């Protein structure tokens, strides 16, 4: 068991045969994602993260810590190095569908997806006619007020989402530039 006074160390999550590892990226632990069991929520970092990495790395829980893989990690041939979440400001996720649609979700590390990064992901998705869902977090001072979900996608997707939007959600067709 590690001494609580020891400095935590960041370890690669995936082995070298995976092609990529998290390296110094801790975006998923810094409040870009949420998980009740780890008390992670938008804008609030995991209680175990420090400037040196995960303080419970060796004993971290299976979910979400050991099982989560962002698309930047798993799709090496699709996303360039500069789209690593700590560099781009976005955690891309491909394994969470929207109803029957395979979608690319973009979780911002801060309030919203940087415009130039959103443009890159839209350019990536448009030729495939793949929907992109992205989020904006809303704060008043230090108080988190919630998020809105926005999306771009092919016309059929745009029609489908009209059935389930909320007032804060914005959905547009990828064909509308």
Q: Would you give an account of this structure?
A:
The chain is of the alpha/beta class and 177 residues long. The chain has one domain (16-173). It is 18% helix and 21% strand. The chain has helices at residues 62-66, 71-74, 85-88, 115-125, 155-161, and strands at 49-50, 53-54, 90-93, 104-108, 132-140, 143-153, 170-173. A five-stranded mixed sheet has the order 3-4-5-6-7. Strand 5 (132-140) and strand 6 (143-153) form a beta hairpin. It starts with 48 loop residues before the first strand and ends with a strand.
Write the layout of secondary structure elements.
Layout: E1 49-50, E2 53-54, H1 62-66, H2 71-74, H3 85-88, E3 90-93, E4 104-108, H4 115-125, E5 132-140, E6 143-153, H5 155-161, E7 170-173
Parallel strand pairs: 4-5, 6-7
Antiparallel strand pairs: 1-2, 3-4, 5-6
Short description, anyone?
This protein has helices at 62-66, 71-74, 85-88, 115-125, 155-161; strands at 49-50, 53-54, 90-93, 104-108, 132-140, 143-153, 170-173. With 177 residues, the protein is of the alpha/beta class.
